[in-house]
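Marked as duplicate of an earlier ticket. Keeping the data here for the record.
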Amino acid sequence: MHNFIFKKVSSKEEMQKSYAIRNKVFCEEQKISKEVEFDNLDNLCSHFLVFDNKKAIATARVRQKEENIFKIERVAVLIEFRKLKVGTTLIKNIIKQLINLNDEISIILYSQVTVKDFYKSLNFISYGDEFFEDNIPHIAMKYLKN
């Protein structure tokens, strides 16, 4: 039985768990270079984890781009948990936290094209043209509030 718990990263140990998930998903699975993945922006971000009981299984970070624009980045779910709606739990909780801070904000992200339908299911719409980040096609998306 799974017990998913969403949490804002609050310790060095939790940050290491976030880094480990990102390394596994992006660097090992998707072959993204560590220089690109670990871009020296982590200190400007809020980080989040989803745990299954005590195991960290998903992560993301949020960076404030402008006064009222927040960007969700580095969304990663361990492969064995991807069909269990963990990503949905992660993104919905991040959106809820951001809107609780200020309901006037805009929330954006750059989705890999292969998972844009996942974000569409969470009320994100794409805008602009596709572009490449580390040889992977992406599309800019923004959250439409209900």
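See parent ticket for discussion. DSSP finds four helices and seven strands in the chain.
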